[in-house]
Design brief:
Helix content of chain B: 55-70%
CATH class of chain B: Mainly Alpha
Strand content of chain A: 5-15%
Number of helices of chain B: 4
Largest interface: A-B, 25 and 21 residues
Structural class of chain B: mainly alpha
Radius of gyration of chain A: 26 Å
Structural class of chain A: mainly alpha
CATH architecture of chain B: Orthogonal Bundle
Oligomer: heterodimer
Radius of gyration of chain B: 18 Å
Strand content of chain B: 5-15%
Largest sheet of chain B: 3 strands, antiparallel
Number of helices of chain A: 7
Order of helices and strands of chain A: HHHHHHEEEH
Strand order of the largest sheet of chain B: 1-3-2
Number of domains of chain B: 1
Shape of chain A: rod-shaped
Distance between the termini of chain B: 31 Å
Number of strands of chain B: 3
Shape of chain B: globular
Chain lengths: 191, 117
């Protein structure tokens, strides 16, 4: 992005400070998305100020930035939208979690997404724990009411583990199914 | 005894704020239906055609949303200054969407006119 050069050093400082704030707000985005946001704001500021007499530079610049609004507030929806798009493209867990963090209050859909994602992480965790503590991890059945899946430090008396070595394959399969449904859900939410 | 009927200013302001929020995308689509505009120019055009004081910072997230929905598309056009402009234009789907919105707007206007009589 080409910086705008102002005649007044004060105007230049105001401009640079504004873009420092913008950069802090969009740092979470992919490089091309960051560039897009910076160029769009820069273009708006340039169009509003380039014909202004140097004497009025500060006044006009402050007015333009005020109308654009605080980057921390104004860019929040843009960052949230772009992050979801990045997450659905890459499905990188880091981007997915960031998109969730930014959108968790944007509707019940994202809340459901977060819960399903938590299940996926738990299943992955259980597959690892099964290898470390096979006797304490699995799908336990016992008595009349016990039907539990997970890790138990003290196995309930009379219970037995149903799946044995198939437990790992089962949780990996569940991870795949949940992952598939979450991908569909995120694509639906992105619309 | 005299009663002074005063307008509920707060209610009217809140209502108008909602109306503005709801109609801004319709206004933008109508303006973009004429020709392509870049962001700053679009703001000026909205100001010229309406009395709405657009919060400029809210315009870009809205344009971004319209782009995600496939209603508008954008392209960067290089300028001599070295600072390019991002031009927005309606897509084919955007034009069809606008036509549907126009019908709804017209029906709503007619209904309100009838009620007001």
């Amino acid at each position: 992005m080409k910086r705008i050069i102002f005649t007044s050093t004060t105007a230049q400082k105001i401009y640079d400070d504004y873009f420092a704030r913008v950069n802090r707000c969009i740092g979470i985005l992919a490089a091309n998305d960051q560039q897009e946001v910076l160029m769009e704001l820069n273009s708006h500021i340039y169009e509003a100020t380039h014909t202004v007499h140097p004497d009025n530079e500060i006044e006009i610049l402050v007015d333009v930035l005020e109308k654009l609004g605080a980057p921390e507030v104004v860019l929040q929806p843009v960052v949230a939208q772009k992050k979801v798009r990045q997450a659905t493209r890459s499905f990188n867990p880091k981007h997915v979690l960031q998109a969730l963090y930014l959108n968790i209050f944007n509707g019940v859909g994202y809340f459901i997404f977060a819960i399903i994602y938590l299940f996926i992480l738990c299943f992955g965790f259980l597959a690892i724990v099964k290898m470390i503590a096979p006797r304490h991890t699995g799908l336990f059945i016992g008595g009349e009411h016990l039907f539990a899946m997970g890790y138990f430090t003290h196995r309930p008396s009379g219970s037995f583990e149903l799946l044995g070595d198939w437990f790992i394959a089962t949780v990996i399969l569940l991870m795949g199914i949940f992952y598939y449904f979450n991908t569909l859900l995120l694509r639906l939410l992105k619309r | 005894m005299y009663y002074i009927c005063r307008m509920n200013t707060e209610f009217v302001q809140n209502w108008f704020s909602q109306v503005k929020k709801g109609t801004l995308s319709y206004i933008i689509l109508n303006i973009l239906n004429e020709k392509e505009y870049y962001g700053y120019e679009l703001v000026q055009e909205i100001k010229a055609h309406t009395t709405i004081d657009v919060a400029e910072g809210t315009l870009y997230p809205l344009l971004n949303r319209l782009k995600t929905d496939g209603i508008v598309e954008s392209k960067w056009v290089e300028q001599e200054s070295g600072i390019p402009r991002k031009y927005y234009t309606l897509t084919t789907s955007g034009k069809a969407t606008l036509n549907e919105m126009k019908k709804m707007w017209s029906a709503l206007g007619n209904a309100i006119n009838k009620i007001e009589k």
